[in-house]
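User: Could you go from structure to sequence for me? I need the amino acid at each position, not a summary. Structure tokens:
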């Protein structure tokens, strides 16, 4: 009889362990989904008085929470400036395609982990030229909105003036 009691106790302990593991995984999953949602690069429009009914009840509060979370997230800022070495250099190395000019603007922005996408857009993960160059900005000085992803306030305008000389 004591063998049955021990077996039942072990099964109960195993059940509790499984519940704890499932709860932990659910918590990690919920955190990952929340973080992805909050740190998404999708631009958030300011809530308008005549909100579309498809946005649902309480969307203004969620937009405010998402905006506040973005303001403290380091991920959005890092992605805006481009993280990691760019595969643009796989082609733009001077052999297959022209290498970037070593002007002051390019040398000053070397600290952005050799990433081109932060300023020039495009898609550094693709090798096929027409896909990689889609929506690319050839001269980032002509599109000041790319500067304001990293440079805040009047700093972007002042720096842009110095690079246009």
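Assistant: Here is the amino acid at each position, in order:
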């Amino acid at each position: 009889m004591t063998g049955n009691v021990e077996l039942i106790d072990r099964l109960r302990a195993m059940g509790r362990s499984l519940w704890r593991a499932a709860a932990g995984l659910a918590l990690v999953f919920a955190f990952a989904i929340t973080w992805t949602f909050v740190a998404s690069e999708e631009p958030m429009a300011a809530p308008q008085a005549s909100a579309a009914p498809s946005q649902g009840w309480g969307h203004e509060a969620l937009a405010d929470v998402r905006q506040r979370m973005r303001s403290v997230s380091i991920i959005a800022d890092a992605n805006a400036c481009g993280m990691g070495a760019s595969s643009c250099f796989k082609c733009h190395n001077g052999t297959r395609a022209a290498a970037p000019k070593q002007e002051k603007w390019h040398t000053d922005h070397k600290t952005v982990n050799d990433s081109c996408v932060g300023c020039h857009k495009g898609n550094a993960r693709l090798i096929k030229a027409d896909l990689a160059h889609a929506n690319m900005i050839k001269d980032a000085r002509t599109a000041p909105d790319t500067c304001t992803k990293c440079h805040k306030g009047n700093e972007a305008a002042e720096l842009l003036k110095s690079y246009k000389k």
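One structural detail worth keeping in mind: Confidence is low (pLDDT under 50) at residues 77-85.
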